[in-house]
Amino acid sequence: MADTVLFEFLHTEMVAELWAHDPDPGPGGQKMSLSVLEGMGFRVGQALGERLPRETLAFREELDVLKFLCKDLWVAVFQKQMDSLRTNHQGTYVLQDNSFPLLLPMASGLQYLEEAPKFLAFTCGLLRGALCTLGIESVVTASVAALPVCKFQVVIPKS
Amino acid sequence: MADTVLFEFLHTEMVAELWAHDPDPGPGGQKMSLSVLEGMGFRVGQALGERLPRETLAFREELDVLKFLCKDLWVAVFQKQMDSLRTNHQGTYVLQDNSFPLLLPMASGLQYLEEAPKFLAFTCGLLRGALCTLGIESVVTASVAALPVCKFQVVIPKS
């Protein structure tokens, strides 16, 4: 019953708390809170990554890892799969969720668009942390063109 | 798979974050962080309470409500039931969890006992918030005699 929404409630509270007590509500302060949220997401993603079934650690192809995140990780956290995954086959992946659960409480459309980044930072960290545990360093950003559609861009630098 | 531990990971990060950035690490600062955590728990408890099946809102006896928290709410949040519930039949209830999940990561015994309060504040708030949604004002405190056993005391003032 309620357990499926527990994470979403807790996430909402974390965001509210960080913004309420932010010592500097200006652009710099917001940047700090976003970074704190991203860091929390990263460590939770790492911890979740360590809990993954052993066989997933044998992934050899980057694309397999990304597919795994879109399916299994997303279901574990959000009870749904990512809606699409695209790649340029050069280390850049775009993961699209057409109704991202953490954005759903906001009205659809454009009017709350500027509020969106604080509801995405934790999840960017979550993806980066899970990838890190699976042995892949990455840069993860998110963008929203119209609520509640969300695109996560994962860039994996070639070593 | 990983979804059952998501709440615990997130809770750990919240506690760590609040203590890391606490402007005053002394007794006063700790008190503020505890109060922040309790408040977050309260609002999550309220929100969970609103999600409860309609029939539970028809509870008439206080004891029924407390039993509901020990069983359904605890399973929803911690995937286990509370181990015992006692009452003096005068508005005081003691809910005991013999292996409270948020204390399990700490070693058993006495050595980390002073760290325990920060892992209990959120859950005290959670109980208070769920009770509030069910129409019962209460004061909830927690105590630990030996990890990971935890007692939550719910006092319901007679109006």
Keywords:
homodimer, 159 residues, alpha+beta, Muramoyl-pentapeptide Carboxypeptidase, domain 2, four-stranded antiparallel beta sheet, 45% helix, 13% strand, globular, endoplasmic reticulum (chains A, B), phosphoprotein (chains A, B), TRAPP_component (chains A, B), ER-Golgi transport (chains A, B), golgi apparatus (chains A, B)
CATH superfamily of chain A: Trafficking protein particle complex subunit 3
Proportion in helices of chain A = 40-55%
Multimeric organization: homodimer
Overall radius of gyration of chain A: 15 Å
CATH-defined architecture of chain A:
2-Layer Sandwich
Rounded mean pLDDT of chain A is 86
- Tell me the strand order in the biggest sheet of chain A: 1-2-4-3
CATH topology (fold) name of chain A: Muramoyl-pentapeptide Carboxypeptidase, domain 2
Percent range for β-strand residues of chain A:
5-15%
Q: End-to-end span of chain A in angstroms?
A: 45 Å
Please outline the major beta sheet of chain A.
4 strands, antiparallel
Q: In terms of per-residue confidence, which ranges of chain A show pLDDT below 50 for 5 or more consecutive residues?
A: none
- Total number of distinct structural domains of chain A: 1
CATH class of chain A: Alpha Beta
How many DSSP-defined strands of chain A? Answer: 4
Give the H and E element order of chain A.
HHHEEHEE
The general outline of chain A is globular
Largest interface: A-B, 28 and 28 residues
Structural classification of chain A: alpha+beta
Subunit structure (chains A, B): Part of the multisubunit transport protein particle (TRAPP) complex. Heterodimer with TRAPPC3. The heterodimer TRAPPC3-TRAPPC6A interacts with TRAPPC2L. Interacts with TRAPPC2L.
Keywords (chains A, B): Endoplasmic reticulum, ER-Golgi transport, Golgi apparatus, Phosphoprotein, Transport
Function (chains A, B): May play a role in vesicular transport during the biogenesis of melanosomes.
Family (chains A, B): Belongs to the TRAPP small subunits family. BET3 subfamily.
